[in-house]
Write a structure and sequence with these properties.
The complex is a heterodimer of chains A (about 325) and B (about 375).
Chain A: H1 3-9, E1 29-33, H2 40-53, E2 58-62, H3 66-73, E3 83-86, E4 89-93, H4 96-107, H5 111-119, H6 121-129, H7 133-147, E5 155-159, H8 163-170, H9 172-179, H10 184-196, E6 202-209, H11 212-229, E7 233-241, H12 251-260, H13 267-297, E8 302-306, H14 315-326
Parallel strand pairs in A: 1-5, 1-6, 2-4, 2-5, 6-7, 7-8
Antiparallel strand pairs in A: 3-4
Helix pairs in contact in A: 2-14, 4-5, 4-7, 7-10, 9-10, 12-13
Chain B: H1 5-11, E1 14-18, H2 25-38, E2 42-47, H3 52-57, E3 68-69, E4 83-88, H4 91-102, H5 106-113, H6 116-124, H7 128-143, E5 148-152, H8 165-172, H9 175-182, H10 195-211, H11 213-245, E6 250-256, H12 260-275, E7 280-288, H13 306-316, H14 320-347, E8 357-361, H15 370-381
The chains are: A alpha/beta (about 325), B alpha/beta (about 375).
């Protein structure tokens, strides 16, 4: 159990807003979006684990993040076939090229035929040039996994690529509908589009840090999802926070401590403590400023997760994040 | 053998910064360009990311797609000849310009520009941005207006695929393969088909049936129209690649954060550079927590100096327990960052083990003016 983590992470009692992600309100298909490096994969893994521990059958799908997923669950590799990561929790790697090749195989059933196709230059062109084709086939697979597998998954969690690319993923239905006017790809694009824009089935969880650039991207992402893409945004997870301290540290006093450190009883220690305090205050101040921006401009439930220093520690860390996200005790397992 | 970072910036003609998104690559590029300008060079910094704050930091209201001078008056000594220009690379716009320039006629250019496939591709095709960036870089380099061009590459580890582009381009413009795409919907009626051609047409036929005819026709039309430009593109790409591969002229540098994810991506880039025989100049690790605080496990209560320190803290009105926890947190963060930096150094390919590594401490305030950029530049390279 990550008790020591928790102690470090929330100096004094936590001052979060208390909002948590209700597991019951999560849609069938949950799409995790956000800028790179904000902890999107961690949040997806943690929620998947919480759902599985609550008795749900869950599929966690990564596109370019499966290395990280397999590290958390200590599984050597995750491939194109679902593997069980935990009781009730499955993982899959939606490898664009492999999925596309297998689509070709299914389309042209005879080996001699699809072999030739896969090896031909025209095919190489096609996959390189046809806009959004690979993404479409990947989302088509997601759609199958969401709706047509037996026994069905209660939830499919898709860890989208970092924002720029992630957006082009979710927009691919629109994009390919413009390119393919009829035929099987047109039908696929329609089905994908119908699933993504069905707010009873699908919803986005945006993950961000409370800092300038991630918040800028988050606001752009939200606009695009709501406006152009018409995909529901169900929650915002603000990760890596330096929560306000209780009791607060006085910045002027910390500066005094820093400046006077040389004449203190233990100068090195006094100086280290002062620097630590000032650093924390500065980051906490930046966080507060951007939390306010988010509160004003992004009207969706907001879950705040404090900075946890032990990201490499794996499983206990996931349980801790999951607990903070959902408000459920990890000890329930 | 590696030249130091200062040498790289003072001597090379092209300095590239690669790295994943969100590591501060744009800021490091701008700081580097500013430093070089103050050291007397005539510098252009090319950025992909139109970060508003950065524009403000450079004293501009925005960064446009043309080369804009940055006013350095307040920083420059009267004797310095250095100058700084900045421009943003807008892929779509530059790509349109290139097509207009290399198409044999304005009509031919319009034919391409109005194609659906071109429009979709110029937005989303993997590699399109790289082709365009190379073309623009070629133009800027051979124009010889600048001593140094600093390039802030796209915020993804795949921007490195940029340097494989010429090979890929050559493959795309392979005339034999193009033959098939140029007439994908034509009836296959010629009697003179060889075996190769027959199988290719069969495939075209099948692909058509699976994907829908219009798509293939569009793609065919696109490639046939763009083939007219192939020669120009190819030649430019090859010439600029030769410049990039010359370690006396160009240097590739990595920017990363001390987070595991971006370290992994930085290593991917390093290996790619190694594979392409492009020289890795130096690596910048940005936003490193260097506040040692207390080591994990240390609690203020257990330290020998406890009583004296606690008394003094209380006198200042600081809660010792809160401060102790905060110091433990920064201690853990500093350790975490050190561990990831060590991991990065350990896993660099053999030829890159002696790559200079510059650590930039986490500045809690965001850089929003020339002074801020200058502070960063001095942290990186010392006095210009």
């Amino acid at each position: 159990m990550g008790a020591s983590n928790h102690m470090i992470a929330t100096p004094s009692s936590p001052s979060r807003t208390g909002e948590t992600l209700s597991l019951r309100k999560l849609k069938r298909l949950v799409l995790f979006c956000g800028k790179g490096g904000v902890g999107k994969t961690t949040v997806a893994c943690a929620l998947a684990l919480q759902l599985a521990r609550a008795g749900k059958r869950v599929l966690l799908a990564g596109i370019d993040s499966t290395d990280q997923i397999s590290r958390y669950f200590e599984i050597p590799t995750i491939g194109l076939r679902e593997v069980e990561l935990e009781k009730g929790l499955y993982g899959i790697h939606l490898d664009e090229q492999l999925i596309f090749d297998s689509f070709i195989r299914k389309t042209f059933r005879f080996k001699s035929l699809y072999r030739r196709i896969l090896e031909s230059t025209i095919y190489q062109y096609f996959t390189a040039a046809a806009p959004g084709l690979k993404e479409l086939i990947v989302l088509d697979t997601v759609q199958e996994l969401t709706g047509q597998v037996r026994p069905p998954y209660d939830h499919v969690l898709l860890d989208c690529p970092a924002t720029g690319h992630g957006l082009s993923y979710l927009d691919v239905g629109n994009q390919t509908l413009r390119t393919f006017h009829f035929g099987p790809l047109h039908r696929k694009a329609e089905a994908v589009q119908a699933l993504l824009t069905d707010a009873t089935q699908s919803g986005v969880v945006i993950v961000t840090l409370a800092e300038e650039l991630p918040v800028n991207e988050t606001l752009e992402l939200y606009e695009a999802l709501r406006g152009r893409l018409k995909i529901a945004v169900d929650a915002l997870v603000v990760n890596g926070l330096f929560p306000l301290l209780d009791p607060p540290l006085d910045t002027a006093a910390l500066e005094q401590l820093r400046d006077a450190a040389p004449i203190f009883a233990a100068p090195a220690l006094a100086s280290a403590l002062a620097e630590a305090g000032l650093f924390y205050q500065a980051r906490s101040r930046i966080n507060q400023e951007h939390l306010e921006r988010l509160a004003q401009e992004l009207p969706v439930p907001r879950i705040e997760v404090p900075f946890l220093p032990d990201e490499a520690k794996g499983f206990p860390f996931l349980l801790e994040v999951g607990r903070l996200l959902s408000g459920r005790g990890a000890e329930e397992s | 053998m590696n030249a130091g970072p200062r040498d790289v910036i003072l001597r090379r003609r092209i300095v590239m910064f690669c790295g994943s998104g969100g590591v501060g690559k744009t800021t490091v590029s701008a700081a580097t360009a500013l430093w070089a300008a103050l050291a007397g060079r005539n510098v252009l910094v090319v950025t992909i990311d139109p970060a508003r704050r950065l524009a403000n930091a450079l004293g501009l209201s925005g960064v446009g797609t043309s080369e804009t001078p940055v006013p350095l008056a307040e920083l420059t000594l009267s004797s310095s000849r250095g100058r700084l220009h900045v421009m943003m690379m807008d892929t779509k716009q530059v790509m349109d310009e290139l097509i207009i320039k290399y198409a044999p006629s304005r009509e031919a250019a319009d034919r391409i520009l109005h194609q659906k496939v071109y429009q979709a591709m110029s937005d989303s095709m993997v590699g399109a941005a790289e082709v365009v960036a190379l073309g623009k870089l070629y133009e800027l380099h051979f124009k010889r207006d600048y001593d140094l061009i600093v390039v802030d590459t796209a915020p993804t580890k795949h921007a490195i695929d940029f340097f494989e582009t010429p090979q890929r381009l050559i493959h795309i413009f392979d005339p034999e393969a193009l033959g098939w795409l140029m007439r994908p919907v034509e009836a296959v009626s010629s009697a003179g088909f060889g075996i190769l051609k027959r199988s290719a047409s069969l495939i075209a036929d099948l692909v058509e049936r699976a994907f829908g005819l219009t798509v293939l026709a569009d793609i065919g039309a696109f490639f046939s129209s763009i083939q007219e430009l192939a020669g120009g593109f190819r030649e430019r790409s090859e010439r600029i690649l030769a410049v990039l591969q010359d370690p006396a002229l160009s240097s590739f540098n990595i920017v990363t954060s001390p987070q595991r994810l971006s370290v992994d991506e930085a290593l991917y880039i390093a290996r790619k550079l190694h594979g392409l025989r492009l020289e890795l100049g130096f690596a910048v690790v940005n936003r490193v927590t260097m506040i040692p605080g207390l080591r994990t496990g240390d609690v203020l209560e257990a330290l020998p100096e406890r009583d004296a320190v606690v008394k003094q803290l209380v006198e200042l009105g600081l809660d010792p327990r809160t401060l102790s926890r905060v110091a433990q947190l920064t201690g853990a963060m500093s350790q975490h960052d050190q561990d990831n930096i060590a991991l990065f150094q350990r896993q660099l390919p053999p030829g890159q083990q002696d790559t200079p590594l510059l650590r930039v401490p986490y500045f809690p305030t965001e850089i929003c003016d020339l002074d801020g950029l200058m502070r960063l530049a001095k942290t990186l390279y010392g006095e210009p």
